Amino acid sequence: MGIDVTELSSTDDLHHPEAAIQEAQILAAQSFHAEKTFFLIGGSTSGNLAMLLAVCDPGDLVIVQRNVHKSVINGLKLAGASAVFVSPQRDAGSGLAVIPSLSGIEEALQRHPQAKAVFLSNPNYYGMGELLNRYAETAHQYGVPLLVDEAHGAHYGQHREFPRSAMQAGADAAVQSTHKTLPALTMGAMLHIQGNRINLDRLKQALAIVQSSSPSFPIMASLDISRAMMASLQEELFQPALAHARSFRAWLKAARMFLQEAAFTDVTVNSKHDGSEKIKLTSPQRDPLRIVLHDSTGTLTGKQLQQLLEEKGCWAEMSDNVYVVLLIGIGTGDEHMERLRDSITFIHQAIVSEMDDSALNMKRSAKEEVESRHAVWAATELEEPVSFGGGWYRNQPSVRLPLRDAIGRRVAEMVVPYPPGIPLLYAGERLTIAMADEIERLASGRANFQGAVDSGMGTIAVYEEKPGG
């Protein structure tokens, strides 16, 4: 590849851009509603690490959404920082976890005035999110920046039918995985900045630490190409994908098959931290290009459905024990959508022919299944700061126990079902019965686990404790 070069006088330097890369980043900032944009060649992971290193000194504290990507936890470890976790709220229709309540974030800021930032993940892997204006305003009232992992929303704000981006909502820093929804190479991402709450010199130092000293020029070029395509075609770039999504939803509804789209509703959140009062957010932001499907009969898990689709040549974005997420991109063509419809019809006919009414009565609904996961997060909300100082490299003895024998002990490794890469259990947390139940349920559904040595989760590492400790 002729474009696969190194830092030359004619190619510029990512870590000290003065020419082509600098111009490309300036143009990207204009396109993505930012004041400053940095190219990332290590995905949004590198941006999450850099944001936290830029705002945290060892011992500092950050208000963090409980269900964040594992890179956020690794960033806290590298910074030697602490976190106060705020549990996510639950979408009433699908049972899926969404952004924490505004009141929960504000109460955490009130209780911990020493906090250096608020960190949120919006949207989630299922394309569900919320407009962040009020969250940004609240963070700023307490004098701290709002940091956002917007990995799945690189296209946000680029079409009237898309949700507004974190930058448009007033966030101080946001990472976007350009490679996920725009025509950039894998690992191509961007970090967007606005306002004066982020120390740019410190951020640049952090980026130099977490990014390669030999950055990929093909990845950087693909980021600029993505930006140029949007600038040239504007909303027209996304029109075919949106048309495919609308057409598929209409077909699925009319076909009355066992597969249904997730029953999203207006997000119900607590207006008081103790949950005594609830309100509905009337403008939840959802990605129209993500189609979240489940088997309404409860016969197939999400992972089983994904496997059947793959056997027919249809590749899903991800799946869990209940749902399959389909992402319709700007490269999706008529032939892809026809194959998807044919595959779903074939699977439907095969399932219906083998259905047993008595067996169906024993199935849990999608909502009930996912609510069990949310119950784990809700029951394990961490009211007090959790220190990640010393992190993974601290020399504390640990032993490996069968999962059930480890209940009540502090675990010595992260448990991260992947995808989506959101830690279920952090090192230092005590393993509860609910957590053990959820781990076993995921393992039985053949979930992939990262972070833990025993990928089958039959055992788990726990810290040795003194009697009574």
Automatic annotation (TrEMBL):
Residue ranges constituting the Orn/Lys/Arg decarboxylase C-terminal domain according to the UniProt record: 400-434
Name by which UniProt lists this protein: Amino acid decarboxylase
InterPro entries according to UniProt: Orn/Lys/Arg_deCO2ase_major_dom (IPR000310), Orn_Lys_Arg_decarboxylase-I (IPR052357), Prn/Lys/Arg_de-COase_C (IPR008286), Prn/Lys/Arg_de-COase_C_sf (IPR036633), PyrdxlP-dep_Trfase (IPR015424), PyrdxlP-dep_Trfase_major (IPR015421)
Residue ranges crossing the lipid bilayer per the database entry: none
Signal peptide: none
Keyword set, alphabetical order: Decarboxylase, Lyase, Pyridoxal phosphate
Single annotated GO MF: carboxy-lyase activity
Organism, as annotated: Paenibacillus agaridevorans
Cofactors that this protein relies on: pyridoxal 5'-phosphate
Family affiliation: Belongs to the Orn/Lys/Arg decarboxylase class-I family.
Domain Orn/Lys/Arg decarboxylases family 1 pyridoxal-P attachment site: 2-332
